Automatic annotation (TrEMBL):
SUPFAM superfamilies associated with the record: lambda repressor-like DNA-binding domains (SSF47413)
Annotated PANTHER family: ANTITOXIN HIGA-2, MERR FAMILY BACTERIAL REGULATORY PROTEIN
Highest taxon listed in the record's lineage: Bacteria
Species in which this protein is naturally found: Haemophilus influenzae 22.4-21
Residues of the HTH cro/C1-type domain: 132-169
Documented EC number(s): 2.9.1.1
Keyword DNA-binding: yes
A Pfam family annotated for this UniProt entry: MqsA_antitoxin
Record key words, sorted: DNA-binding, Transcription, Transcription regulation, Transferase
InterPro entries: Cro/C1-type_HTH, HTH-type_reg/antitoxin, Lambda_DNA-bd_dom_sf, MqsA/HigA-2
Protein name: Selenocysteine synthase
Amino acid sequence: MKLAFVELPFFEKYRAEYLSDDEYRALQNELLENPEKGDLIQGSNGLRKIRVANSKRNKGKRGGARAIYYHYINNKTIYFFTIYGKETKDDLKPEELKQGFEEMGRHLEGKITLRTEILEKPSPITITPEEVKAIRQRLNLSQAVFARKLRTSVRTFQAWEQGKTKPSAHASLLLRMVDKAPQTFELIAGI
């Protein structure tokens, strides 16, 4: 899934006050995973409110900031309206709502340019039992040696090869790395 994240002026103005770059990326990734995660704000024409941690003020999600956004499903866009501290206010005023939707409309019409970032959810990395076995055989290693080099148990590795269990996304990625670059084992050994 691909989503565009657009910052309306109020959000852009206050984002740095409430979110570090890493926290902002985490928020984007959270919404990329589930764009309708935030609570629907009654009477707001579809705006949602989501809690975000505010490390700059040592606050978790409960006492931290609130980001207000609109998920425009038709063009796969999240419009961030504003962000504010929980202690600052409870909800948006009607004039703030109106201004946000007007800015969103002008952006959709191409009349204003707003900071926009397009992110894509990476597809999950998977690997089949046949591929796991083929990698091991290509490297001419026994199951026990291969498992030890991966720092996993022989039983776990055997279950992967037999299709009884599936490697996690991280284990699948590591297996793909070993397949492309066998020297990955030496890097792992050095850790």
